[in-house]
UniProtKB/TrEMBL annotation:
Residues 9-275 form the Double-GTPase domain. It comes from the Bacteria. This is Double-GTPase 1 domain-containing protein. Pfam families: DO-GTPase1.
Length: 278
């Protein structure tokens, strides 16, 4: 008897390494490395191949064009379990419109309702660490400025971006027709902190998220059971490709070998992207 496939939906705003991750994962599949096996070639691999070509040349992948609107699907096998990976590749304006207008197209609705796991990619570089006046001495707390403070405006923008992620999750839950009276067991939620190599930290991913986006983490903790919620680190590129030395590494080796994840419990990086789906 055939087992039903576990369906994974990868979501995230532009610039969160989704394209780089997909290109690196596809290369691992093509090479036959790791625990994942490709069951069928995707109908359209243009975006994947373009990203793979740039990485092979020692260049970072490019952002998805604003006008682009497509969904990439990979039919995989993880050990003996079928796995369907769905990756909506939307341009920046369209992602923002989804959040602001709180509307999803029919294809998004179907993917949302049928998925068993949601992987939300988050680029923490968009979110500064919030000020915590509770940990400061009285002398360190400055009086409120009389004129608009550019730094305060930046903090407000950061807060708004965090709220947007919560609104996105709320929208997906509403489409799924799931209430929040009791913590959810399904779909399972993985909050994936991307560009991990640039965070320069030895903390566990959950600790990092608690410091940078506490509101988002508390929302997730309140609405998912501990068993259904995880926070991961991800470096789809491994390091920045802004120096000749790093570019040469990519030219001399296999780009996907530098990609890694950091497990929820922390520890050393694991160079096996398939662990995200285990």
């Amino acid at each position: 008897m055939n087992q039903p496939a576990n369906r994974v939906l990868i979501i995230g705003k532009p610039g969160t390494s989704k394209t780089t991750f997909l290109a690196q994962l596809f290369e691992v599949l093509q090479l036959g490395h790791g625990r994942l096996r490709l069951l069928a070639t995707p109908a359209n691999t243009v975006a994947i191949e373009q990203a793979r070509r740039r990485l092979a040349e020692g260049k970072s992948t490019q952002s998805t064009p604003a006008s682009q609107n497509q969904t990439l699907r990979l039919s995989l096998q993880l050990a003996d379990q079928p796995l369907e990976l769905e990756f909506p590749d939307y341009g920046g304006e369209q992602v923002d419109a989804i959040i602001q207008e709180r509307q999803l197209g029919p294809e998004w609705v179907q993917m949302c309702r049928e998925s068993d796991d949601w992987l939300l990619f988050i680029r923490l570089h968009d979110h500064k660490e919030p000020h915590d006046v509770l940990t400061k001495a009285t002398a360190e707390v400055e009086p409120a400025p009389q004129l608009p403070d550019p730094e305060a405006a930046g903090d407000l923008t950061t807060f708004q971006k965090a709220v947007e992620l919560i609104e996105l999750l709320q929208l997906l839950l509403a489409v799924r027709e799931l209430g929040i009276q009791q913590p959810l067991r399904q779909p399972r939620l993985k909050l994936v902190l991307t560009l991990w190599d640039e965070l320069h930290t030895a903390d566990r991913p959950e600790q990092v998220l608690a410091a940078r986006l506490p509101l988002l983490l508390e929302f997730a903790r309140s609405n998912w059971t501990p068993e259904a919620l995880q926070v991961w680190g991800l470096s789809a590129q491994g390091f920045r490709l802004d120096t000749t030395e790093n570019q040469d590494k990519y030219l001399d080796g296999t780009p996907s070998e530098y990609a890694y994840v950091v497990l929820p419990e922390g520890g050393e990086p694991v160079h096996d992207l398939s662990r995200l789906f285990g």
